[in-house]
Amino acid sequence: MPSTSVPPNDQATKNRVSQPTGQLIVFTGPSGVGKGTLLRHLLGQHPDIQLSISATTRQPREGEENGKHYYFVSRPEFEAMVAQGDLLEWAEFAGNLYGTPRKPLEHMIDRGHTVILEIELDGARQVRESLPAARQIFVLPPSVEELEARIRERGQDSDDAIAKRMARAQIEIQAASEFDIQILNDDLELAVKQLELAVFTQPSTAAHQPSPPETPPQI
Ligand SMILES: Nc1nc2c(ncn2[C@@H]2O[C@H](COP(=O)(O)OP(=O)(O)O)[C@@H](O)[C@H]2O)c(=O)[nH]1
Ligand SMILES: Nc1ncnc2c1ncn2[C@@H]1O[C@H](COP(=O)(O)OP(=O)(O)O)[C@@H](O)[C@H]1O
């Protein structure tokens, strides 16, 4: 796959001499499927991979830190970011706004990093339009019942927030086939291995491999 660079949006970027560019990976799946868990394992093994930090109007959960898990902002602050073109993509999810700050992402990609955007379906679709070379991965749950059990077990969302997430989950799961790669998160260890493979395998290389002959060549 060709590397993905974020379109330049200022003069300094346009004037820069050519540098290695990294790849962008979009990572999507219904709330509670285990995206955060899978990424923690992946980043534990590959600390060079960067995770984009989103802006959100959601209230911080217990243990979440501003600037580490999210940039927690007010709705007017978020709307100002949108108006100034500061976000690569953004969407409303379960009553809150979420978006990807453009500048830090450009910086990481330009420095040659692999960067992962953990974002919901609408945002993934926006990135597919603006940066079609970004690899898109979708995580599936073993079942909708198991998904709800995981959200409840996590114990961090109100009943209302869980109901909104479950309603959205049905729509998101139906869109899984739009993504380049689907990973079933049933056995966690297996799913982490599949994620590693999805991130580190270059699909264009595989696509250009000659197919093996059906019968061994005659000598
Ligand atoms: N479009 C978009 N979605 C995001 C962004 N950041 C997080 N999300 C998604 O917003 C949804 C809700 O995230 P969160 O409130 O942390 O809940 P959780 O997924 O249940 O842990 C998830 O599907 C995230 O992937 C972003 O920058 N843009
Ligand atoms: N393969 C798995 N099997 C069982 N439970 C899992 C698995 N993956 C994640 N979980 C659990 O599911 C819950 C939701 O995971 P989380 O990573 O927060 O999901 P997401 O980031 O997609 O919202 C957590 O309690 C987590 O420990």
TrEMBL record:
Where would you say this protein principally sits, based on its record? cytoplasm
Q: What InterPro entries does the annotation carry? A: GK/Ca_channel_bsu, Guanylate_kin-like_dom, Guanylate_kinase, Guanylate_kinase_CS, P-loop_NTPase
Show the catalytic activity.
Answer: GMP + ATP = GDP + ADP
On the tree of life, the source organism's domain of life is Bacteria
Alphabetically list the UniProt keywords. Answer: ATP-binding, Cytoplasm, Kinase, Nucleotide-binding, Transferase
Which Pfam families does this chain map to?
Guanylate_kin
Q: What are the recorded GO MF terms, alphabetically?
A: GMP kinase activity
Q: Where is this region: Disordered?
A: 1-21
The listed locations are:
Cytoplasm
Q: What does this protein do?
A: Essential for recycling GMP and indirectly, cGMP.
Q: Which NCBIfam families does this chain map to?
A: guanyl_kin
Q: Identify its protein family.
A: Belongs to the guanylate kinase family.
Under the heading HAMAP family, the entry gives: Guanylate_kinase (MF_00328)
Q: What is this protein called?
A: Guanylate kinase
- Origin organism is Leptothoe kymatousa TAU-MAC 1615
